[in-house]
Every structure is written in structure tokens, then in C-alpha cells.
């Protein structure tokens, strides 16, 4: 499972002091809790913890916050703050009679740059289950409109059958600045329409995620007015039976070492960068044979002439050029 590879920043733990703060001794009256550095803080979120409340400060794992939304209000720009979201058992194959069966059911907008949102879970888990809440599945679990945000360790599920897992949005003008995001070690299941949506986002890194049957797209650019993503890296992801694995007008991006499983082999359902330019697409494993007919490399994938597709692997050998 991708979540087994989570490597979230581990802070130093400030233990409860045996004595109160000493007058004139710097640091001895610092509030207890978990710190990454002199200012960074970890805020714990656990809706299953007994007596959990958003009225707490969230820095103590035995006094966690109820919601990620509240934790975000406590984060400061570029302080190294981490929101640690604790595991829950709300998974289709889990024994929910054991308790801890309340998932994350939120749709949050990340406006604080430099924040990490991390799911903490057993190593064999697909990640901490996170569900949309908007009726008819039209919601988005996490919308990133700030720079330098990390998200990892979650299993995004369509609580109302549909919606989007993560959206990264840059529009400038003092509104949205979703650049430089890192999304890694996450799972997107078949109840999600679009796993990750990128809107004019630069320098986004999408690494080691599983897109398991996303109804519409694994990775997608959905805007008809804003340009597509650019200078991104999409690597080491697995796409299984998605409507389309990668359908985004990437520019100047590096798309490599992804694996796609698809039994339908519909036109354009593989990697489609046709509306972009100057991408390096290499060493991806594709489920189609070489050729240009229906269900073959030249139809399953699509690319502009300016792309450089090198050593991608079809079922009967490596490719030698763009589809």
C-alpha cells in the first residue's frame, strides 16, 4: 500500500517539565507539545478520541482536535507546521465493531503556505480514510490554494459517490497560489470521480499514489479558461481501471515510471498530454500493444509533437516515439 512509504517530518518531543518555568531562563516557560523546530508545531486531529473537541490547542496527542479545518486555523505560514491526522477503521474491509470507525468527513481549503497534512496509520493500510461531504458527490476533500503544501497518507473516498480527492489551484491576483504542492503516498478509490485536479499549478509533484478505479480521471486538468499545469513531476503512481489515467495539458513536465492497468483500452484513456507541450514522458508501463489502431499505443495515449516520449513499455515491447 502506498501509505507504507509515508515519511512525515518527525519533530523533537518536548517533555512535560518536572518544574515550572524559571525566570530569566529562555525556553523554560514554552508551552508543552510537539515541535518541529523553534516555531513549527504538530497539531493532532482524531475524531475518534474520547472527549475530542475543537476547543483544545491540539498540540497534545491525548487532547486532539476534532477537525482538520480547525487545525488549519492554528497553522502559521512557513513555520513547518504539521497536521497529523490519526488512523480510523472506516474502511470497507475493516472490522468497524472494534471502534475508531469515524472517518474524516470534511472539505477543507488550505490557504496557509508551508503546511503538511499527514495521515498516520498502520503500515499496511491504504491510508487514513477521508470522505467528501457535498451531496451528489460534487465536493472536494482538499483544495490547495497556498504554496508549498504537502499531503500524504490518506485514502480519499467518495462519501456521496463522486467528487474530487485533491484540487491544486493557482490563479494569482491575490486569490489562489497553489504551486509547489507535493501529493504522495495516497489512495484514491472507485467512488472518487477525479483523484487529483490541477488548475494552472506549477512545480507540483505527484508521487507513489494509487488511483484505483477513479470513475473519470486519475489526474486531470479541468479548466477551459486557465492554462494547464507545468514543470510538474508525476512518477511511480499506479492507475487501475480509471476512466482516464492522466488527462492533463502538462507543459515542460516529467512523467515517468507510472504503471497503468486498463482492460478497456479506450482511446485516450492512458496518458493524454495532447493539449500540452514539451513534456518528457518515459519508462511508463502501458497495458496496450504497439501500433496505432484501436486499443493500441497510438490510440490509447496521445501527445503533441513537441513532447519527448522515450522507452515507454507496451505489452509487446518498448516504444520508439510519441503516440
From TrEMBL:
This is Putative pectate lyase. Keywords: Lyase. The keyword Nucleotide-binding does not apply. Residues 175-286 form the Periplasmic copper-binding protein NosD beta helix domain. The lineage of its organism: unclassified sequences, metagenomes, organismal metagenomes. GO terms for molecular function: lyase activity. InterPro entries: NosD_dom, Pectin_lyas_fold, Pectin_lyase_fold/virulence. The keyword Lyase applies.
